[in-house]
Automatic annotation (TrEMBL):
Belongs to the FAD-binding monooxygenase family. The lineage of its organism: Bacteria, Pseudomonadati, Pseudomonadota, Alphaproteobacteria, Sphingomonadales. InterPro entries: FAD-binding_Monooxygenases, FAD/NAD-bd_sf. It holds the Pfam family Pyr_redox_3. It comes from Altererythrobacter epoxidivorans. This is Cyclohexanone monooxygenase.
Length: 599
C-alpha cells in the first residue's frame, strides 16, 4: 500500500471525526437558541461609550440619506461629497461613526484582515497604518478622520434608529422616519447596516437571574473592569473571578487580556476556533513611503483578491493566513497532471490542502498549551466551516496560572444561576459573566435592520426578497427607485475583505447619482429585466460556499440548518470577485449605465 492509499484512509477517518463532532453540536432549536440583546435585554444593550443627547425631531429635506455610520456610510458619503453632493446625511444608531468599530471596544480588538487593504481611504486621508493588523482604537479614529475630512459630521444624526423608509411616488422622495420622531425626505437613500450589528445572547435558562455583573463584548464596561480599549490593565478585575462564554473571533482576542488581569478566568467553550499564527508587526514609515505610490491601495486590494482565488497572482503583497490557504490549494492543484484537473479532483485537492492546514493548526494548539486543554482546544472541522482566527497570545493565555478552559464537549453552557454558570452539571460561581456570544446573521433583512423599506406601489423589501435576494449588481432593486444597498452579496462577495466591496459600491453610487443629476432625472431605478438577468447570471456560478450543512453548526450555516432555497441567491459573480470588479468597472466607464432607467 503506497503513500497515496494511506492518505485516503486518513482523509476518510478525518471526515468521520468531523461528522461526529458536528453531530454532537446539532440542536433542535437551531438559531432559535439565541436571544437578541437590544430587544430582550435593553438594560445590557445601553451604549456605554457616549451619552445620549436629547434633540428636536428633524423634518427637512436632504439629497442623500445613508443608514449606517460604519465604513459603508463613511465611504459612500466621502465619494458623494467628492462628486459635489453636499447635503449627505448619515443616520447611525451608535453615538459616533465607526459601526462595528464603534461598538466593539473590548480589550485586544483588532482587525483580522491586513490594515493596508482593510482600512478604507488610506490614500485619500494620507493615514499610514501603524501595524500590519491595526487595533480597534486606530480603526475607530480613522472612521472619525474620514468623517471630519469629508464634513460628514455636520449633518449626521447619531443615536438615531431608522424605523421606516417609504417611497413617496407623487413627490419622488423617500420619507425617512426614526425613533427620535424625525420625519424628513431624501431624494436618494443608501443602506449600509452591516451584517453583524445585532448582538445576541445565548437563550440560557436563568440568564436574567444572575446577581453579579454581566455584559456582551460589544458593550464592554470599562467602568467595571478598569483598563481601556488601548489595552491598559483591567485593574479592577484583579480580585474578580470572571467567566467568558464563547470562543469565537471576539473571545480569541479578549481572552489574553482577561487571563492576564483577572484573578481567575474561566473560558466556557462549546466549539474551539481554529487559531492560526498572527505575525503582527509594526509598519515602518520608510517601507510605507516606498510602496505608497498613487493607486497603491486598489492595487493591494486587487492583489489580495488574486491570491485568494486559487492563489494564481504572480506576487503576494499581503501575505497572511487568507492568502496562505489560496497558495496551498494552488500547490495541490498544480501537483495534478493538467488532464486530471477536473472539478472533482480540484475539490479533492482543496480538501487535501485544508486537511494539511487544519492538522498544523491542531498541532499548534497542542504544542503551545499541552495536556488535556491542548487537546480540547483543537478544532475538528474544515477551516472555512467557521470563521478562521489568527492570534499569537490566545492559546498562550491558557498557560497563565489563573486561566482555565471549561470545555463542554459541544454541549455548551446549560444555565445561569444567581451565582454563576452551570456547565457539565457543575455550578461555577463567578463575579462577572462576559458574553462573547456573537451577532445575529442571515435573518430576514428588515427584521435585522430594524426597519421596513416600502418601495413603489407599496411593495416592501421583505416582499421583494421573499424566497431570496434580488438585485442588480448587489446594489439596486427594481421597485425601489433612488435606493442603494451597500453590502457584498450578489456582487464581488469578497468576504475576507469587506471594505473592498464597499469602496467599489461607493464609486458606483457616486457615478450613478452624478449621472442622474447631470440628466436632471428625478429617479434612477434598475429595470425588472436587468435585475432578472443579473440574478440569472449569478445562478450560473458554482453556488454558495457558506451555509454548508455538512459543517459544524455556527452562524455560517444557520446553526447547521442551512439557509434553505434562499441560500442559492447569496452568491457573488460567477467569475469570482475580480470578475465582478472588472465587470462593474467597465460598466461604469461605458457611461451607458445599462440596466438602469433614468426618468
Ligand atoms: P461568534 O458567533 O463567532 O461566537 C460566539 C461564540 O459563543 C461561539 O464560540 C459559540 O459556540 C459560543 N456560544 C454560544 N452559545 C453558547 C453556549 N450556550 N455555551 C457556550 N458557548 C456558546 O461571535 P464573535 O463575536 O466571536 O464573532 C462574530 C464575528 O465577528 C466573527 O465571526 C467575525 O466575522 C467578526 N469578528 C471579526 C473580528 C476581526 O476581524 N477582527 C474580530 C471579532 C469578530 P459555537 O461555536 O459552538 O456556536
Amino acid at each position: 500500500m503506497g503513500e497515496h492509499a494511506a492518505q485516503v484512509v486518513d482523509k476518510q477517518a478525518l471526515r468521520a471525526k468531523y461528522a461526529e463532532e458536528r453531530d454532537k453540536r446539532l440542536r433542535a432549536d437551531g438559531s432559535a437558541q439565541y436571544r437578541r440583546l437590544e430587544t430582550e435585554f435593553s438594560d445590557l444593550a445601553t451604549d456605554p461609550y457616549t451619552p445620549r443627547v436629547e434633540r428636536e425631531p428633524v423634518t427637512d429635506h436632504v439629497t442623500f440619506a445613508f443608514i449606517g455610520g460604519g465604513f459603508a456610510g463613511l465611504v459612500v458619503g466621502a465619494r458623494l461629497k467628492d462628486a459635489g453632493i453636499d447635503d449627505v446625511r448619515i443616520l447611525e444608531k451608535g453615538g459616533d461613526f465607526g459601526g462595528t468599530w464603534y461598538w466593539n471596544r473590548y480589550p485586544g480588538a483588532q482587525c483580522d484582515t491586513a490594515s493596508m487593504i482593510y482600512m478604507p481611504l488610506l490614500e485619500e486621508t494620507g493615514h499610514m497604518p501603524t501595524e500590519k493588523y491595526a487595533h480597534a482604537p486606530e480603526i475607530r479614529e480613522h472612521c472619525s478622520r474620514i468623517g471630519k475630512q469629508y464634513g460628514l459630521y455636520d449633518n449626521a444624526l447619531f443615536h438615531t434608529q431608522v424605523s421606516d423608509l417609504e417611497w413617496d411616488d407623487a413627490r419622488k422622495v423617500w420619507i425617512v422616519r426614526t425613533d427620535r420622531g424625525d420625519e424628513f425626505t431624501a431624494k436618494y437613500v443608501g443602506m449600509g447596516t452591516g451584517p453583524l450589528h445585532v448582538a445576541k445572547l445565548p437563550g440560557l435558562p436563568g440568564i436574567e437571574n444572575f446577581k453579579g455583573k454581566a455584559f456582551h463584548t460589544s458593550r464592554w464596561d470599562y467602568a467595571y473592569t478598569g483598563g481601556n480599549p488601548e489595552g491598559a490593565p483591567l485593574s479592577k478585575l484583579a480580585d474578580k473571578r470572571v467567566a467568558i462564554i464563547g470562543t469565537g473571533a471576539t473571545a480569541v482576542q479578549c481572552v489574553p487580556h482577561l487571563a492576564r488581569d483577572a484573578k481567575e478566568l474561566l473560558v466556557f467553550q462549546r466549539t474551539p476556533s481554529s487559531v492560526d499564527v498572527r505575525n503582527n508587526k509594526p509598519l515602518e514609515r520608510e517601507w510605507f513611503d516606498g510602496v505608497a505610490e498613487p493607486g497603491w491601495q486598489k492595487k493591494w486590494q486587487e492583489n489580495f483578491v488574486g491570491n485568494l482565488a486559487g492563489g494564481f497572482a504572480a506576487e503576494d503583497l499581503v501575505q497572511d493566513g487568507w492568502t496562505d490557504l489560496g497558495h496551498r490549494i494552488r500547490k495541490e492543484i498544480m501537483n495534478l497532471p493538467p488532464e486530471e484537473r477536473t472539478p472533482a479532483n480540484v475539490m479533492a485537492a482543496y480538501e487535501d490542502a485544508d486537511n494539511q492546514k487544519m492538522s498544523e493548526i491542531r498541532a499548534r494548539a497542542e504544542a503551545i498549551v499541552g495536556g488535556e486543554a491542548g487537546k480540547k482546544l483543537q478544532a475538528w472541522y474544515r477551516q472555512l466551516c467557521k470563521r478562521p482566527c489568527f492570534h499569537d497570545e490566545y492559546l498562550q493565555a491558557y498557560n497563565e496560572p489563573g486561566c482555565r478552559l471549561v470545555d463542554t464537549d459541544g454541549k455548551g453552557v446549560e444555565r445561569i444561576t444567581e451565582k454563576g454558570v452551570v456547565a457539565n452539571g457543575v455550578e461555577y460561581e463567578v463575579d462577572c459573566i462576559i458574553y462573547a456570544s456573537g451577532f445575529e446573521v442571515g435573518t430576514e433583512y428588515a427584521s435585522r435592520a430594524g426597519f421596513q423599506v416600502t418601495g413603489r406601489d407599496g411593495e416592501t423589501l421583505s416582499q421583494h426578497w421573499d424566497g431570496g435576494m434580488k438585485t442588480l449588481h448587489g446594489l439596486h432593486m427594481h421597485g425601489f427607485p433612488n435606493a442603494f444597498m451597500v453590502q457584498p452579496t450578489q456582487a464581488a462577495n469578497m468576504i475576507a475583505n469587506v471594505p473592498h466591496n464597499i469602496v467599489d459600491h461607493a464609486d458606483t453610487i457616486a457615478a450613478v447619482v452624478s449621472e442622474a443629476e447631470r440628466r436632471g432625472a428625478q429617479t434612477v431605478e434598475a429595470s425588472a429585466e436587468a435585475e432578472k438577468a443579473w440574478v440569472d447570471l449569478l445562478l450560473t456560478g458554482l453556488g454558495a460556499r457558506l451555509g454548508d450543512t455538512g459543517c459544524t453548526p455556527g452562524y455560517y450555516n444557520n446553526e447547521g440548518e442551512g439557509f434553505g432555497e434562499a441560500a442559492k441567491y447569496s452568491v457573488g459573480h460567477p467569475a469570482g470577485a475580480m470578475g465582478y470588479f472588472n465587470h462593474i468597472d467597465a460598466w461604469r466607464k461605458s457611461g451607458e449605465y445599462k440596466g438602469l432607467e433614468f426618468a
